[in-house]
Task: inverse folding
């Protein structure tokens, strides 16, 4: 065991350290919201792949505290060792495990590469030994790299436009200056690699492996997360390399329903979620500036939500047992409905035209973007004494 004073070490959209007590406070807040937002029962066993941060963490908390599920989570996080801090996701789950134990809930975590066969084998062994058949599977992995378990080839995803170069503006997260940005168009290999990493290949492999292991319960529901977003990010997001991967993920939901879940009376869904501050979204050029303006508009209109509010609403309105999910004309659940409201989009687009380095702090909610980014790693959380030394090592037990 080792204690240390932990300070943020931030480079652009990367934070190299994380604070265990701050992460724990974030998780406690989410547990509180999920507990109030659900019936506390109704779902049996759930698996969340990508369970330690962002939408996956909020899904796990919603399932366990909002709907009484026993949850096995899979993630890829770094534990703290000696005086070196672990990752935010690891500390998030340390608190999830502590709180679960304190309230008699069953939550287990497999920490390793979920893309690898060894990761899937470890999850399947744990499910067989201590859980049983799954009623719900959430797929919420976000990462820039994936090694194909069959060929051994490692793919790197890109965030590039397809067709002409993309010209826009973005906020430099180190200098807080708004700058023009030009992103060169993708090659065919960029598109293929991004689909390999962020498309539906791995989700389908998971579902087939779970089926082969006889771990899917009757009426089982699976869900993965997608994004569409506004016209102003269209060329870099939905019509770019990542958008192709999302098209593939959305098509995979249909394949999973047909090949894997239909015979059991179940279905696979894609939920299109709102743009929010997470490690994954902070890495996308242009998106932090868009989020800062969107937050301002949605808070002014009293319709802002965070990941936990989104996930509570997803299960309450669509995925809880007995609910029939409401789908758009191509079969997706839309909890981005408030982000995409015409009045919200019009107001955000207007601010987008006006925003400059000089008015960034007033015209947009950049201060919240900045604070929430730090809070992902447990920093700038109210009530935490950051001058005090804290225990760096934590357990997921
Ligand atoms: P995140 O960065 O907060 O979390 C990613 C999760 O993936 C973490 O739990 C991490 O441990 C896990 N992970 C990464 N590599 C892994 C591996 N090899 N094995 C096991 N686990 C691994 O991401 P997020 O923003 O919550 O994104 C989750 C999903 O939601 C993505 O599909 C994303 O496109 C989608 N989404 C995000 C937003 C947004 O604004 N953040 C909006 C809509 C949809």
Result:
């Amino acid at each position: 065991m080792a204690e240390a004073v932990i300070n943020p070490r931030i480079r652009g959209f990367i934070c190299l350290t994380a604070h265990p007590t701050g992460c724990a406070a974030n998780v406690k807040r989410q547990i509180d919201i999920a507990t109030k937002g659900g019936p506390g029962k109704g779902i049996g066993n759930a698996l969340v792949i990508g369970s330690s941060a962002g939408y996956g963490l909020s899904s796990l908390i919603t399932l366990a505290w909002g709907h009484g599920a026993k949850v096995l989570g899979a993630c890829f996080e770094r534990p703290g060792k000696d005086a070196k801090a672990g990752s935010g996701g690891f500390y998030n789950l340390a608190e999830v495990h502590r709180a679960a134990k304190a309230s008699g809930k069953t939550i287990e975590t497999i920490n390793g590469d979920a893309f690898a066969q060894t990761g899937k084998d470890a999850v399947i062994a744990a499910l067989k030994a201590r859980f049983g058949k799954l009623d719900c599977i959430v797929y919420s992995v976000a990462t820039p790299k994936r090694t194909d378990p069959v060929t051994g080839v490692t793919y790197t995803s890109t965030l590039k436009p397809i067709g002409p170069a993309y010209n826009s503006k973005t906020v430099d997260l180190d200098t807080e200056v708004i700058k023009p940005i030009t992103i060169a168009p993708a090659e065919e290999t960029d598109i293929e690699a991004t689909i390999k990493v962020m498309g539906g290949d791995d989700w389908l492999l998971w579902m087939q492996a779970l089926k082969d292991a006889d771990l899917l319960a009757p009426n089982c529901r699976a869900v993965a997360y997608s994004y569409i977003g506004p016209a102003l990010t269209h060329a870099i997001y939905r019509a770019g390399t990542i958008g192709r991967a999302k098209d593939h993920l959305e098509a995979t939901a249909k394949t999973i329903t047909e090949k894997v879940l239909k015979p059991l009376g179940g279905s696979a869904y894609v939920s299109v979620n709102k743009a929010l501050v997470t490690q994954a979204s902070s890495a996308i050029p242009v998106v932090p500036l868009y989020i800062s303006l969107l937050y301002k508009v949605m808070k002014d209109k009293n319709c802002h939500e965070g990941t936990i509010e989104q996930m509570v609403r997803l299960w309450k309105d669509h995925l809880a047992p007995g609910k029939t999910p409401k789908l758009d004309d191509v079969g997706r659940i839309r909890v981005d409905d408030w982000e995409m409201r015409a009045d919200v989009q019009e107001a955000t687009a207007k601010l987008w035209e006006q925003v400059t380095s000089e008015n960034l702090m007033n015209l947009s909610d950049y201060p919240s973007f900045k604070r929430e980014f730090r809070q992902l790693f447990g920093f700038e959380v109210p009530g935490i004494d950051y001058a005090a030394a804290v225990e760096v090592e934590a357990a997921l037990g």
Q: What stands out?
A: The two ends are 16 Å apart (CA to CA).
